[in-house]
Amino acid sequence: MRRTRVLTAVLALAAGLLTGGPPALAAAPPDRPAAAADAPARSALAADTYTWKNARIDGGGFVPGIVFNRSERNLAYARTDIGGAYRWQEQTKSWTPLLDSVGWDDWGHTGVVSLASDPVDPDRVYAAAGTYTNDWDPNNGAVLRSADRGASWRKADLPFKLGGNMPGRGMGERLAVDPHRSSVLYLGAPSGKGLWRSTDSGASWSKVTAFPNPGTYVQDPGDTSGYASDNQGIVWVTFDESTGTPGSATRTIYVGVADTENAVYRSTDAGATWQRVAGQPTGQLAHKGVLDTENGHLYLAYSDKGGPYDGGKGRLWRYTTATGTWTDISPVAEADTYYGFSGLTVDRQNPGTLMATAYSSWWPDTQIFRSTDSGATWTQAWDYSSYPNRANRYTMDVSSVPWLTWGANPSPPEQTPKLGWMTEALEIDPFDPDRMMYGTGATVYGTENLTNWDRDTTFTITPMVRGLEETAVNDLVSPPSGAPLLSGLLDIGGFRHTDLTKVPSMMFTQPNFTATTSLDFAESHPDTVVRAGDLDSGPHIAFSTDNGAHWFAGTDPSGVSGGGTVAAGADGSRFVWSPRGAGVHHTTGFGTSWSASSGIPEGAVVESDRVDPKTFYGFRSGKFYVSTDGGATFTASPATGLPSGDSVRFKALPGAKGDIWLAGGESGGTYGLWHSTNGGQSFTELQGVDEADTVGFGKAAPGASYQTVFTSAKIDGVRGIFRSTDQGRSWTRINDDAHQWGWTGAAITGDPRVYGRVYVATNGRGIVYGDTSDTGGGDDGGGGTDPDPDPEPTGACKVTYEITNQWSDGFQAQVQVTNTGPDAWKGWSLTWSFADGQRVSQLWNGVHAQSGPAVTVRNADWNGTVAAGSSVGFGFTASRSATNTEPAAFALDGRACTVA
What we know:
Blueprint: H1 9-15, E1 46-47, E2 50-54, E3 65-68, E4 76-79, E5 85-89, E6 94-97, E7 112-117, E8 125-129, E9 142-146, E10 154-157, E11 175-177, E12 185-188, E13 195-198, E14 206-207, E15 234-240, E16 252-257, E17 264-267, E18 275-276, E19 285-292, E20 297-303, E21 314-320, E22 325-328, E23 344-346, E24 354-358, E25 367-371, E26 379-380, E27 382-386, E28 389-392, E29 394-396, E30 426-428, E31 436-439, E32 444-447, E33 459-463, E34 473-477, E35 485-489, E36 496-497, E37 515-522, E38 525-534, E39 541-544, E40 552-553, E41 562-568, E42 574-580, E43 585-588, E44 595-596, E45 605-608, E46 616-620, E47 623-627, E48 635-636, E49 648-652, E50 660-665, E51 671-676, E52 684-685, E53 689-692, E54 696-698, E55 708-715, E56 718-724, E57 732-733, E58 748-750, E59 758-761, E60 767-772, E61 797-807, E62 810-819, E63 825-826, E64 829-833, E65 839-844, E66 847-851, E67 854-858, E68 865-866, E69 871-879, E70 891-892, E71 895-896, E72 898-899
Parallel strand pairs: 1-57, 29-33, 61-72
Antiparallel strand pairs: 2-60, 3-4, 4-5, 5-6, 7-8, 8-9, 9-10, 11-12, 12-13, 13-14, 15-16, 16-17, 17-18, 19-20, 20-21, 21-22, 23-24, 24-25, 25-26, 27-28, 30-31, 31-32, 32-33, 34-35, 35-36, 37-38, 38-39, 39-40, 41-42, 42-43, 43-44, 45-46, 46-47, 47-48, 49-50, 50-51, 51-52, 53-55, 54-55, 55-56, ...
């Protein structure tokens, strides 16, 4: 079975911000049967070049790890539990995503359980990837390695799974590079798989058979799903660089194990043998182990639970490596803790200064502790002046991400915005004692005047999260007027974007759902909007009469336990709702009372006709249902051949009564895209669409009368995001191999006002939107057309060459080639020469060859056909010298191109 948002309800309630997982995809389906005789003919698959951006939210999910490189200033990385990894860009104070190239079949590799930045060669970075260790993710984990700071990756598959979104994911880091011999890496595995080592810079891995303890701790042994009952395994690796010399493997290594009685092990012979460290505390788990080699202190943060949500007791300990002495340096008595410790960092410029977090202090707030004397004494980020009033050492400025206040007005001692929760990532910049970053369940916070703390003056905390987009998206709508985009999200509800390039001021409130499961608007009255969602207690449906700017709650029918799907009548006079826990219901007005619908089963997906206000549709278990009386009664359609399961999404076309597109199915069964023009009485399966998971509509192409159709699908054997401007007769893949975002099967919609623009729901990388380079293409995200379009070239081809990233001895570039002639290309070959000895090392979306300075790039199998006026793009990484002159001339199949 395909499974969406698979985390258990009890965990979702406890998490506060708990991101979900996409379906567990099975093997590819068998060859599809021939399409019906009246199916439209198919032409060859074409390609177009799109510019992809995020609709800005800034954050939105759990950041369990932040890693600074120890040898190069301003080089830092962040990992997320389901949303990939990011690299810090100091010039723009923003994060660059690094794993957008992860594809549909490997969606689990968007979960990153650990990161390591090579301290010897800063260009090298490693990511231990995999989302679940149980059967929710069918694939094993992998260690991804990059020699260009994450611009491109190579993969080493592992014989076990990794759990970027599993319990214990805030512990670590589980992946570590030997600081003296950086070809040696260690990885702590979950699930009892032990300690693993690579001696060839992550290309291959073998188990360290001498390591004695694979871990014993599980959160909940009775959990039959395998999620909370997995052994959390080996959780961190720390090298003592004082015991080695450059070129030789470090002699002393410490390893943390999820075992409350045997948490810390050590090797003094470069990993040949291992011993339990004598005298260590017992009864709790060592979440972190951070070594101050100058003073010879190993600091450890302990909690009685694995986190990131649980933890009721904790301690901080210091181990003196020279004498073997253990010292309890906890800032408070154990009896006074109601939390565990996890976040732990040492100031590398001022040894003896360290900080730690009370990661599981949910109420009234998290706590951060600081010591400047190796843990002998501590101060904390806030204290009680006179309960319930607080005295904070810090001020918070969230004006760049204003929704972090949650629109709340809490009573003391709670405050808004909160200092945080799930604060397991905490790092002081090793080159700048004033800069500190820490991760929460919703964002990355930081400061650049941290040492004010020691002078008893306030320091300022701000979001340091721009570019890091980590939300799981359930639904998207783009009305014909008002805001261009409304979204339904897990964890933080959803947003109204009036400008895609700016962070909205607030998420949807009144009520504030923990997850918005479905959104709709009245097609002829777009100011009328409805949303359904999950909430611990309170109503599960809300309405807006001003295009989603303000909301008011409706009333639930009896038995509702979750949001389900909801549909608005075309004129906004009535609504149909299929909530979780109750059958399908209908109402006139704004949900003050509901009546049960008949003729349709509980759990059906519901949608509205976009023309007739009394016509609604439903789907459940292979059957399509139609109501023509406002949702009071439904009748099963005679349509056959539809998917038998419930992983189906369908939409009715605006402006055409009874025009319906349906996508879905499951691997190994009926799976594809269907179209009905008679109100669902019959459907025609589209030929050549092997699999489809979403469908949506946007503005018609110039000269076309039918709206543009978008889908996340597999067409002609290629997985991607596709566009059709001719009712599905032909398709254009509009993403590329560098922009795949793992699983994109929840929702898709075009923009009715901007031709070619598409909004794509991801499971962890937020809302991605794309604008076409094709005729009538997009703008800057504000909703209009390009105010300063490029002049039309006079040649038969136009080339845009852009260096998108550059480092000391390498760079990354993107090339776009536009067909400016009158005829389609049936295959293409682009040539140019480098002036400064650059050498292409890796290229995607094409096949390359290089002889001396001359480079030739030919089309891949899927992007050889380029229609007149359309574009095709590819990217590459290359080595360079001190200069990196851009090519001055390009030729396509021997014809000179215009260079833009």
